[in-house]
Amino acid sequence: MPAVVLDSEAVSVLANRSRGTARERVRVALTAAARLGLPVRVPAAVLVDLYRGNRADAAIDRLLDGRGIGVVTTGRAVARVAGQLRHRDRLDSCHVVDCFLVATAVRLGGGLVVTADGDDLSRRARAHPNVRIHDISRERSGPSQA
Q: What pTM was computed for the model?
């Protein structure tokens, strides 16, 4: 089943109420997901970007526990797709999380990746027409085709 997959920035803006515009753009995607009955997921690799070992972690945990947002662990199949994306684009390890985001959407049957890094993720998703990118850092609020 297709899903909505959130990146670090999307989770962060939901957990941090001080970022109004980006937060509303994420909420638009979540509202559409609820209306369509799509699950919302966060790859476990994204949590590595978010957790700091301080009080801010509690806001992330509350968001994940209270909103029905599931955490997807990285299994071999997702890792294989992520590795293929990274190798195809000749990327170094600093792009691993981006590759995991797209790979998670691919393995879930497609869907929408909500991100603040739309250009990079669009390049990662270019061979997967069932994966769309919703860039929350742009003025337009609609998803772009990868």
A: 0.89
